[in-house]
Automatic annotation (TrEMBL):
The chain crosses the membrane at residues 104-125, 131-151. One of its GO terms (cellular component) is plasma membrane. GO terms for biological process: regulation of cell shape. It is found in: Cell inner membrane; Cell membrane. Belongs to the MreD family. Involved in formation of the rod shape of the cell. May also contribute to regulation of formation of penicillin-binding proteins. This is Rod shape-determining protein MreD. NCBIfam families: shape_MreD (TIGR03426). Coiled coil: none annotated. The keyword Cell inner membrane applies. The keyword Iron does not apply. It is a multi-pass membrane protein. Keywords: Cell inner membrane, Cell membrane, Cell shape, Membrane, Transmembrane, Transmembrane helix.
């Protein structure tokens, strides 16, 4: 198997893992602590391999997430496209940030994602979410250094460009 094919399978596999991780059920008490896994995986690949992750890939992952999660079709696709667009725009800066600054940037991006979700759901006629709904971006930002180092280590071991 050639390197390009292995690389494509690795990126696709981690994106699929992010989508499946989104479906893991948690008790209702812990539900607000669940990070948005597809966004975190897309963030990693957008930062590390900007030429592979495009807005089209983000849109397709978002549509798959919409279908798997059973939410308004296009909701997560819009959110992930906005997220990837911002990351690709500032990719050259984000790559060379120290980890604490990168984590802060991820927190801001995940909060922006929550604001977009709030706008979409408000226009769809849903009630405002409780205050605990805002915890998820902070959990995602706290997990970012570990996820980044894990995926980066695996990427280096498999020599994926």
């Amino acid at each position: 198997m050639n390197r390009q094919r292995l690389s494509l399978m690795w990126v696709s596999g981690t994106l699929a893992f992010g989508l499946l991780s989104m479906l893991v059920p948690l008790p209702s008490v812990l539900q607000s602590f669940k990070p948005y896994w597809p966004a975190l995986v897309l963030l990693y690949w957008s930062i590390e391999s900007g030429d592979r992750i495009t807005l089209g890939v983000a849109f397709m992952v978002g549509l798959c997430a919409d279908l798997l999660d059973g939410v308004l079709l296009g909701e997560q696709a819009l959110r992930l496209c906005a997220l990837v667009f911002i990351v690709l725009r500032f990719r050259s800066r984000l790559r060379f940030f120290p980890m604490w600054q990168q984590t802060l940037a991820v927190l801001i991006l995940l909060l922006n994602d929550r604001v977009l979700l709030l706008i979409v759901r408000t226009f769809a006629g849903e009630a405002l979410p409780p205050a605990s709904w805002w915890i998820s971006p902070f959990v995602g930002a706290a997990l970012w250094p570990f996820l980044f180092l894990l995926l980066d280590d695996l990427r280096m071991r498999f020599r994926i460009q």
